């Protein structure tokens, strides 16, 4: 169970007074006493039915509370205890979402032309199965048999597709823009820029789709309501791919465009100093179909016997003093306690069962920075119930505040990379210094948080469990609501 405590978030604390916690007893008394006289059998029947409902509501409430942030919980308890309101989900107390119907050139056409999404060849297979990619049949024997259909070889850059599909089915989606609190822009900006990133293309070509989107959205009647503050979008690559300041530099300059200024962007890596960048988990290969898939997987990873103390999965780069190369040779040298998956070249590109197996068998996993500060492997590791070891604080602590525990030490280990480099600190010695109880506590924390960093397979989500998509949408709606109360000002 997650603690019923505040999750880290850059937001101001929720204004509790707006969502007073109702006392279940007093509101039920109000319901019961006017109508009941305990003399008649009919009243007894009614009382029994009411009591059953109360029990049901309390059970529901404890289930949903164990997977929700404290921001959400007090508000959720509100509709649940009022017998006249049928379901929590009909409330949308954080507001409704309108999904723009963008010109097809900005999303659907990009999928249609998937064979040209990157310069090396077709990546159409990454778009199969609603963007989750091919079924990971090679994981047969590695994951429990009945969970195999929940595993795919998912590309790390498909966030835009996942969010679009889910938001179209969101319980708080509205078709009437005038009733919306937030506007979602289903733009596949990462897919659009992907094919230009490694080719010799002009700055104009790399910004073309973004310019087109911004022009279109500013022509919409609801744009002017808040100068973009109530608009949000997903950008399925790291923020640095969209922050080109000079024409000859890397990437697109989409985020630097004037009209992007106030739009909230969900990114797999954020710029920690930009309020409008929100870090969301990288997609991993696990896409549970139901809440029971999630709990079964949690039980599975919790019960693993982990034969290696730690592991490292990754490729090295041909740069001097590359920290990853150092970890790789360190790990090979410590073969008694460290396990290596060498992803040299394209070996891990299409997915390999060796990575998941290694994480499942290791107590800790080393997570140095990749080409940028974050890497998908952080989430691959935690999904397998392995405890991440970080060497850069920006790899996770300043990135995924809505999705990870408040206290870094409660679920991860931080080691100063300079002390490793100059030999004053041994990774092995640090990891061996944790007692079995401490390890178990950290692992349990990681496993408890798994729902928050996976993307469900079902279009409607997982019901009682909030996945990464749900957490992200609730977070954005809450921010927009708070901003609106403040008048959308800096
Ligand atoms: C929004 O405001 C800008 C600047 O005030 C104006 O040029 C534009 O026409 C407005 N757009 C709409 C759709 O009202
Ligand atoms: C962003 O919001 C601020 C504050 O509300 C406003 O002054 C500014 O004009 C907005 N920027 C754009 C590009 O709309
Ligand atoms: C883990 O090891 C223990 C003791 O060696 C054994 O009893 C247990 O069945 C093993 N569990 C799994 C899931 O293999
Ligand atoms: C490998 O381990 C040996 C013995 O533990 C040690 O002397 C040596 O310096 C290590 N080499 C590297 C590259 O870590
Ligand atoms: C990855 O899969 C595609 C087809 O799905 C295949 O053409 C390609 O050769 C594979 N690449 C590697 C490195 O295995
Ligand atoms: C090693 O690096 C740490 C951290 O930068 C530093 O405090 C320490 O003095 C260094 N030790 C040596 C022997 O260079």
From TrEMBL:
Keywords recorded for this protein, A-Z: Glycosyltransferase, Golgi apparatus, Membrane, Signal-anchor, Transferase, Transmembrane, Transmembrane helix
GO cellular component terms, semicolon-separated: Golgi membrane
Record carries keyword Transferase: yes
A GO molecular function held by the record: galactosyltransferase activity
InterPro entries xrefs: Exostosin, Exostosin_GT47
Exostosin GT47 domain mapped to chain residues: 92-428
Topology in the lipid bilayer: Single-pass type II membrane protein
Cellular localisation: Golgi apparatus membrane
Pfam family, one: Exostosin_GT47
Coiled coil: none
Protein name according to UniProt: Exostosin GT47 domain-containing protein
Source organism of the structure: Citrus clementina (Clementine)
Organism classification: Eukaryota, Viridiplantae, Streptophyta, Embryophyta, Tracheophyta
């Amino acid at each position: 169970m997650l603690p019923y405590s505040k999750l880290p978030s850059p937001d101001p604390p929720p204004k509790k007074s707006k969502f007073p916690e109702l006392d279940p007893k007093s509101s039920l008394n109000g319901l019961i006493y006017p109508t009941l006289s305990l003399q008649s059998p009919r009243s007894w029947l009614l009382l029994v039915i009411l009591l059953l409902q109360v029990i049901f509501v309390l059970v529901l409430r404890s289930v949903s509370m164990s997977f929700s942030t404290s921001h959400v919980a007090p508000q959720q308890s509100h509709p649940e205890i009022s017998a006249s309101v049928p379901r929590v989900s009909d409330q949308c107390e954080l507001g409704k979402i309108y999904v723009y119907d963008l010109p097809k050139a900005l999303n659907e056409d990009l999928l249609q032309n998937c064979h040209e999404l990157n310069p090396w060849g077709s990546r159409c297979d990454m778009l199969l199965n609603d963007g989750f990619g091919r079924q990971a049949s090679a994981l047969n024997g590695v994951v429990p048999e009945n969970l195999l259909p929940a595993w795919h070889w998912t590309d790390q850059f498909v966030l835009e597709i996942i969010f679009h599909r889910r938001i179209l089915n969101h319980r708080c989606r509205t078709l009437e823009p005038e009733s919306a609190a937030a506007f979602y822009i289903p733009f596949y900006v990462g897919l659009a820029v992907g094919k230009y990133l490694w080719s010799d293309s002009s700055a104009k070509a790399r910004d073309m789709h973004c310019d087109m989107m911004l022009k279109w959205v500013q022509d919409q009647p609801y744009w002017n309501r808040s100068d973009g503050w109530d608009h949000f979008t997903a950008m399925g690559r790291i923020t640095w791919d969209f922050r080109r300041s000079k024409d000859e530099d890397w990437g697109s300059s989409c985020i630097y465009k004037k009209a992007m200024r106030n739009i909230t962007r969900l990114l797999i890596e954020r710029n920690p100093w930009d309020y409008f960048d929100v870090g969301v988990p990288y997609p991993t290969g696990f896409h549970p179909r139901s809440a029971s898939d999630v709990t079964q997987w949690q039980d599975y990873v919790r019960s693993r016997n982990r034969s290696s103390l730690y592991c490292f999965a990754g490729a090295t780069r041909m740069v001097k003093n590359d920290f990853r190369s150092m970890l790789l040779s360190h790990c090979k040298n410590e073969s008694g306690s460290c396990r290596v998956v060498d992803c040299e070249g394209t070996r891990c590109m299409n997915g390999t069962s060796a990575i998941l197996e290694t994480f499942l068998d290791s107590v800790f996993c080393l997570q140095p920075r990749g080409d940028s500060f974050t890497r998908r492997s952080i989430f691959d590791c935690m999904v397998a119930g392995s405890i991440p070891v970080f060497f850069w604080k920006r790899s996770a602590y300043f990135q995924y505040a809505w999705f990870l525990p408040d206290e870094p030490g409660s679920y991860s280990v931080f080691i100063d990379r300079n002390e490793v480099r100059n030999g004053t600190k041994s990774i092995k010695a640090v990891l061996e210094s944790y007692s079995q109880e401490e390890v178990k506590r950290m692992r349990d924390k990681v496993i408890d948080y798994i729902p928050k960093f996976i993307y469900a397979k079902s279009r409607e989500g997982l019901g009682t469990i909030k996945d990464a998509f749900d957490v992200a949408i609730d977070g954005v709606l809450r921010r927009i609501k708070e901003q609106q109360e403040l008048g959308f000002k800096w």
